[in-house]
Amino acid sequence: MVRFRTVDGVTTTRDLWLLVARASVGVMFFLSGWGKAANPKRFAADFAAWGIPEPDLASTATAWAELILGALLVLGLLTRLAAAGLAVTMLGAIYYSVWPAATEASTTFTGFLSQFFYSPEWLLLLLLLALAGAGPGRFALDEPFGVEARLQRR
Prior knowledge:
Blueprint: H1 13-38, H2 40-49, H3 55-75, H4 79-105, H5 109-117, H6 120-134, H7 142-145, H8 147-153
Helix pairs in contact: 1-3, 1-6, 2-3, 3-4, 4-5, 4-6
Transmembrane segments: 16-37, 57-75, 82-102, 122-141
Keywords: Cell membrane, Membrane, Transmembrane, Transmembrane helix
Pfam families: DoxX (PF07681)
């Protein structure tokens, strides 16, 4: 494995992987939010079909959350907060969409588990929780603004 080193000799491989993960997940959510914001009626109809209360409000809030929090992830600014906020949206998606679909489509418990754990929402939730736990890494705006240092002092 290639190891990158900084001037102080600390390996930055972890920081590079955090950058790749943060940027990839952030861009995905930003583009998803953009699509929802560009076509709010379509997504409100989807939300209504899934039984989400106040579908117009929920779809608008979801669109803006994905846009803003996705951009924050890409930048590495307020990374833990952004990842946790997007994890909440994934919990909502799992509750209203993935769980009912897996329950309806599966006749066996193992079939349900296969449907559920194969869903992108579940995998994104795990990635977001990992980012919330690991933090932004060095290659993020949290670093020059001292966000992580402030959190560690508490």
